Amino acid sequence: MIAWVFVFLGVIDATQAGAAFAELERLCSKDAGAMWGVSLCGPVMLVEPETRVMVLNTEPHTLKPGIFVGALPKDVLIANTSVTWEGTHWAQLIWPLPDEARDVLLVHESFHRIEPELRMQGVSNEANAHLSTERARVLLQLEWRALTAALRSNGEERKHAITDALVFRGARRQLAKMAAAEENSLECYEGLAEYTGVAMAGADPSARRAFALEKLTSTAQRPSFVRSFAYASGPAYGLLLDESGDKGWRKEILKSGDLGALLARASGVKPAGSAAERAKMYDGDAIAATERERALVAEKQADAYRSQLVTGPVLRLPLSHMRIQFNPSTLVPLGTSGTVYPTAQIMDDWGTLTVTGGVLVSSDRKHAFVAAPSEAAARAGAGWSLLLQIGWRIVKGERPKDFKASLR
């Protein structure tokens, strides 16, 4: 049960929290469910992570609207996400909210809250490991540059730019067997959430395009595209589909899951031709040169993580009901071994793991690995700390110097 602690109001300014709730209510009431057939108005919690103080726009159990204050239990993960708590599905946001694009974030997380109702094709945990490779990163940036050109043009010029973007997209998706399926899945899950935020919060078409253009530019500067690419691709494809005049694309995307295919149909283009030839129009040689340099650095980082979390002594933690908070811009894939999250907080049956020095999540998402502690009694190691639940202990693992979490 929630403990209502009104002395905590100083941690989260009630006036600012109320203003955020009111703005979200204004935006989703204006939409009235027109975009997706479901209203985005609903329960929202703002949580200050250090104190776990939260301000809600809905009272648990009664679902009475208003402003309610309490403390979020320690077994609930804090992130910008959606979460089920006290029998209610909430949009959860970390306090303080950002000054820029605050409305976009509020709508984005509210979209995640309604995704189960929409029966979305996408999921949040697709690997997309191919996007860490040099060639895929080049082709993704070329796609983004072509999408930028499309958003800045119209008519035949826009159609040519869309064709270019789809050629780069198709070439990239030939690089790995599951590339298309994994990219589509994350574009639906995160890309459509970000698009919805932009479409609802943008004051007019010009403002919406400006946000999408900034997102394409800023995301290209991130160290990893594996989990972050959809935040740029989603708004660009969504706005281009809106401006194509196709009124039914949102219903179609819930079934097909492929934004590129829908845009090709709506624009009347048939992407074909050489990606290498088209790359010349978007300064492809310069992108490739930058990515060659980056690949050398990235490989050294990956080798260091392999030594630390694959071949070196590790603590292995089973994953049964994982909840994870992480930075999507920093992930490092290690092939069949899984993906490294440089910083993260993971909750599961055994307790809470807080990581600042890298945790490897296996490709089947059944285990997490951190550098081995000095002894079984230790609850911290190189770049991590562990809070174990009662009944769990750390015991020797299968390899020398390895450890694992075990239920007594």
3D structure, described in words:
The structure is a single chain. Mean pLDDT is 94; it is low at 1-8. 42% of the residues are buried. It is globular and about 70 Å long. It has helices at residues 14-31, 102-118, 134-151, 155-173, 179-201, 205-219, 230-244, 249-256, 259-267, 275-279, 284-311; strands at 44-48, 53-58, 65-71, 81-85, 88-94, 314-318, 323-326, 332-333, 339-341, 344-348, 351-355, 359-361, 367-371, 380-381, 384-388, 392-396, 403-407. Strands 8-9-12-13-6-17-16 form a seven-stranded mixed sheet, with helices on one face. It contains eleven helices and 17 strands. The chain has 408 residues and is of the alpha+beta class. Helix 5 packs across helix 6 (205-219). It starts with 13 loop residues before the first helix and ends with a strand. The protein is 43% helix and 19% strand. The protein folds into three domains: 6-118, no CATH class; 129-282, no CATH class; 313-407, no CATH class.
